[in-house]
Amino acid sequence: QIQLVESGGGLVQAGGSLRLSCAASGLIFRINTMAWYRQAPGKEREFVASISRDSTTNHADSVRGRFTISRDNFSNMVYLQMSSVKPEDTAVYYCKGVTLGSRDYWGQGTQVTVSS
Fold it and tell me: What percent of the chain has pLDDT over 90?
């Protein structure tokens, strides 16, 4: 089993910054790709960013240039640095781990609210 726990969410003003963290535990050696997704009220969950084991990253067009995903394999952490946030970034942000066998694991989510 793999456990993922997000933290760092909260209320931030538009234009501000926030850093989300995701702590992985359990059978972490099985994790290949880590990713962040978000879900706004009344909308489907959407991809935000991903990072592979070799640190290759991919960011959604809506956040590219503003958000940056990173990982620390030594401490089993994944981060999402959010800058120049907008009210439309308001959502519950979820951490996802994908194993080499393509099994998905999700965290419980952390709320990010951007005030205008």
Answer: 86
